[in-house]
């Protein structure tokens, strides 16, 4: 399959942008700014790569509305000018990276319960297990080792990568991507009682994943105790994330790698949780809130909040001192308050002294 | 399989509680307080759901010894009053959620070494691999993709969910639940020497998991370098937890999601580690210690201690200032000490001044 | 297979050390200092185990250049004295722990594309899937459930443990160990646009893993957007680590469990990242830098730096106070600065007063 070729003008039309330079130049690949050469289109992913621009041999560069006029040799270059360079980059990359084709066949080395219903063009690789009453929508691909428990429903055009587990009764929408090793519907972590008398609370709810969700490798999403754990339309979840029982993740929210959300917490829509965040149970994160990396979230967060909680690492020998003192912050605080009172008293006395002095002067 | 029905009185007898209201009402389901309707029993999982009680249509509500007399319409409702509402909830949920039945058959699509010994009623799904000399106890279920390395022993009535790996020589007790993607017996992370000369230290020990342990999805437990990594009876471990080589987790301890325990550390009994905790190597966490979420534990913890270490996220623009200042806490500390000395000196001087003034007065 | 036996002198010769005591004593096992008995050699892994030495029944003990002369009964013991006790321990453990042998057979229950090329002595267990055009080098072992996507290349003498996924086009060097559940080449987490218009950026790059790398259980390494995510020769990565798209991990670097590295960040050579560290995207960690556990790394780190950022957990009731005050650190800081100014003013006044007093005195 030879790579498609497009002129820069064709690409501009495709993404709704304009050409600055030679629109007839042929493009056949997208490449990073360090690696791009003749025939490649590239883009400025981040201002800090601007230094690479001078040496860049790309045939064209995707830029935003503000053409970097001051660039060396800018007049000799070809630009594709667009409103949203990152989106244009994604669209052009899609153009040059056609989706892999699947043969729509069910491997005889897969194990499919006779009661399961597979739609048209479903591809099932070897070693896939499909339980009783499972439904799989048109065009979905089940890679090797995928497990669909009894009663699972998976929508159309999904990609379930190798070793994905979807346990009994869970539901997956359309165009959902589950990366390798994802576990959907494991038991929530719930016990009653203490010590030797502790008993497991049955986890009889399900997980429901709506359309256009993508979930990263080895992420785990627990089934609800009762009812549903819900991942709403368009949410994107990174690798190694933990979503506990009865959590709701809102539409179009983004959860970066290694973040954990404890039970029954509700994440609003278009929320962004950076990596390694921890959110306690039974709270709400408001719509469009954004939480910085490594933050701990102990209570509900209002819509639109921008919170941070990460401690930046410091030189070890300095940090040791800080860590020794931090538990004494309350003492330091009260020491300062005490000092304030003393200084106020001294100032008062000193002022009285001055006045007194004046008075003494007056006494003379 | 139609849902069983019980009268509220029967449920009260089952859990050792008493009925307030109509004991003859029929219950056929357990539901959350938001979703419960006629025929459902529900319970107050958390005081913050109390607001839902007024509108709740459940046929009965599980409550503790203190009946919420002040509730609107309390006289028209049916209550199941118990000492431990959460435990009663779990018991009733168990009653209405019968365990799934397995057929006790060994799939011809599984790969079982002839030297392996399977007990009665062991269910083996397709694509399970069972190595040489493996023993599996009565009633255990091995879901698709389970791997049992050579010499592994698994006890009775266990559930090994899809894609679970138990590597060579490891031992698993009775009634153990290993959720999907769990890895037991991966090599500990041990090397000798530095740089290019670094060499891997063979990890020739095992993991031993005692009875009634439950381990969450995609959690990893490394084999010992020498000897055993041990998870003792009744311990409950959540998803994505890391247990390093030669760790011992004590009886009935609870470890929440994404927590990590470094090598050779010993966790006592009935310890609770919240989510995203990190514990360094070669230390001891005393019995019944409780550690808050996201805490770092750099040294041994005495029995019964209650520790926290999480930093609560704050508004980003404020947090930036705090983070800039935190590494200077030692300077702030010494500044305050210096101020204290100065103020004491001023107070002394001011006092001397007063005394001097008095003396000068006396001089007159 | 009976355990090999060696005299202590033979072991000394093997590791380049010297015997103190009886070189003729026979050793047949390596054991921990708590468990070692007759026939065992042990070693002092950590000074805190020194207390065990008095009661230790081992036939020999590996020690460093400084023989612990002061030990009780030291004259009756046998020592193997070496420059690097830990390395000698690893070498002797290797000697007594012969590598498991694999039969070099390809299971008929594996699924191997006819276009794949397997080298000599490659062992393929059941339920392995090998895609189109895959190449696997001599002596490599693919355990049950391993998935090699189309075009994957794996070198010689590798061990790919159960349920490992290597997605299309990725490359793995020689003598690489991938532990159970590792995912190589999952899509990077990249989207353009916002809310409902958000679109997935195709991730068309690969992961390249060089020789002698070891990667821990359930760790995930994302493929590059364009180009390569690279793990360089000799790097060792622990369990449940997240490596994002386009990251480069340098030679012989060590990354402990549950650490996460965000996109396009470059980790130098011989860097050590402890457990649960988080590193932001688009930065560089210099060669031989060492980062303490749980640290957050928000900006580039120079070579050789030694950084820490973990907060040690404290008693809960004290920590609550600290956490309430920490967001007010900026206020405390400015309060102290204000106090400093006031005290300076008071000191000036007080000094003037004294001088004024003197002057007044002089006036008299």
Please characterize this protein's 3D structure:
The structure is a homotrimer of 364-residue chains. Chain A is an alpha/beta fold. Chain A has 3 domains: 6-96, MurE/MurF, N-terminal domain (Udp-n-acetylmuramoylalanyl-d-glutamate--2,6- Diaminopimelate Ligase, Chain: A, domain 1, 3-Layer(aba) Sandwich), CATH 3.40.1390; 111-318, Hexapeptide repeat proteins (UDP N-Acetylglucosamine Acyltransferase, domain 1, 3 Solenoid); 324-364. Helix content of chain A is 18%, strand content 25%. In chain A, strand 21 (191-192) and strand 22 form a beta hairpin. The first copy, chain A, is flat and about 85 Å long. Residues 353-364 of chain A have low confidence and may be disordered. Chains B and C meet through strand 21, strand 22, strand 37, strand 38 and helix 3 of B and helix 2, strand 39, helix 3 and helix 4 of C. Strand 38 (306-308) of chain B pairs antiparallel with strand 39 (314-315) of chain C, so a sheet runs across the interface.
Brief summary of the model shown:
Three copies of one chain form a homotrimer. The first copy, chain A, has 364 residues and is of the alpha/beta class.
How many structural domains are formed by the residues of chain A?
3
Spans of chain A of at least 5 consecutive residues whose pLDDT stays below 50 are 353-364
Strand count of chain A = 39
What's the CATH C level of the largest domain in chain A? Mainly Beta
Instruction: Compute the separation of the termini of chain A in Å.
Output: 109 Å
Strand content of chain A: 25-35%
Helix/strand/pairing class of chain A, anyone? alpha/beta
- The CATH architecture category of the largest domain in chain A equals 3 Solenoid
Percent helix range of chain A:
10-25%
What's the CATH topology label of the largest domain in chain A? UDP N-Acetylglucosamine Acyltransferase, domain 1
At the fourth level of CATH, the homologous superfamily of the largest domain in chain A is Hexapeptide repeat proteins
- Overall mean pLDDT score of chain A? 91
Oligomeric assembly: homotrimer
Tell me the major beta sheet of chain A.
Answer: 10 strands, parallel
Sheet with the most strands: spatial strand order of chain A: 8-11-14-17-20-25-28-31-34-37
Rg calc of chain A: 30 Å
User: What is the helix tally of chain A?
Assistant: 4
Shape of chain A: flat
The largest chain-to-chain contact, stated as pair and per-chain residue counts, equals: A-B, 79 and 79 residues
């Amino acid at each position: 399959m030879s790579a498609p070729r497009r002129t820069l003008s064709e690409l501009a039309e495709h993404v709704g942008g304009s050409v600055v330079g030679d629109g007839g130049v042929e493009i056949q690949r997208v490449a990073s700014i360090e690696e791009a050469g003749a025939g490649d289109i590239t883009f400025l992913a981040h201002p800090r790569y601007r230094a690479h621009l001078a040496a860049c041999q790309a045939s064209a560069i995707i830029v935003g509305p503000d053409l970097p006029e001051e660039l060396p040799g800018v007049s000799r270059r070809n630009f594709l000018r667009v409103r949203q360079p990152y989106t244009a980059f994604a669209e052009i990359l899609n153009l040059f990276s056609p989706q892999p084709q699947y043969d729509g066949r069910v491997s005889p080395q897969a194990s499919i319960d006779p009661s399961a219903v597979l739609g048209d063009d479903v591809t099932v690789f070897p070693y896939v297990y499909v339980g009783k009453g499972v439904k799989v929508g048109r065009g979905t691909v089940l890679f090797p080792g995928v497990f669909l428990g009894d009663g699972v429903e998976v929508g159309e055009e999904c990609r379930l990568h190798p070793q994905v587990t979807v346990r009994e009764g869970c539901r997956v929408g359309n165009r959902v991507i589950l990366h390798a090793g994802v576990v959907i519907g494991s038991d929530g972590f719930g016990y009653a009682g203490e010590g030797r008398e502790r008993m497991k609370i049955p986890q009889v709810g399900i997980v429901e994943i709506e359309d256009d969700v993508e979930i990263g490798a080895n992420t785990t999403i627990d089934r609800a105790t009762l009812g549903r754990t819900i991942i709403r339309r368009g949410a994107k979840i990174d690798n190694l994330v933990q979503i506990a029982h009865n959590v709701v993740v809102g539409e179009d929210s983004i959860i970066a790698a290694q973040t954990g959300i404890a039970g029954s917490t509700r994440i609003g829509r278009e929320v962004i949780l950076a990596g390694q965040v921890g959110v306690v149970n039974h709270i709400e994160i408001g719509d469009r809130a954004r939480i910085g990396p490594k933050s701990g979230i102990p209570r509900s967060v209002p819509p639109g909040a921008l919170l941070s909680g990460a401690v930046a690492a410091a030189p070890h020998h300095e940090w040791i001192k800080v860590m020794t003192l931090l538990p004494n912050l309350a003492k330091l605080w009260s020491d300062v308050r005490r000092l304030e009172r003393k200084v106020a008293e001294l100032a008062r006395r000193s002022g009285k002294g001055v006045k007194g002095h004046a008075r003494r002067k007056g006494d003379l």
